[in-house]
Amino acid sequence: MSEDTKDEDDKVKRNVEFSELPQDIKDKWVSQALELTDGFLICGKVWEAWAYGTMNEGDFAQVGDDPEVIQRVAEKLYKTATTGGVLYE
Asked: Coil, strand or helix: which one is 23?
């Protein structure tokens, strides 16, 4: 095992916050999040808009098109994988 791999394993074991991970490791989690959410859509309107019949295809976008959403998904996946927690709170 290389020294770099050992350091990465130690960080995971210590439950290091996602923001504290090296960029290349964060990028791997983001890549996994993109792969897992491929084809998922996110709605840009509030829930109440459904009742008014104003929803159309333009109100939805690919999850992977929003960097903030993908970042949050990656962070949640990392936290779940490293703490044995639940994916949704």
From this structure: helix
Q: Would you call 42 helix, strand, or coil by DSSP? A: strand
Enclosing H/E stretch for 60: strand 60-62
Q: 14: how many CB neighbours lie within 10 A of its CB?
A: 10
Per-residue confidence band for 37, with pLDDT thresholds at 50, 70 and 90: very high
Average pLDDT over residues 66-72: 95
Can you give the pTM of this predicted structure? 0.70
- The amino acid present at 73, given as its one-letter code, is V
**Residues 6+ positions from 40 with CB-CB distance below 8 Å:** 62, 63, 64
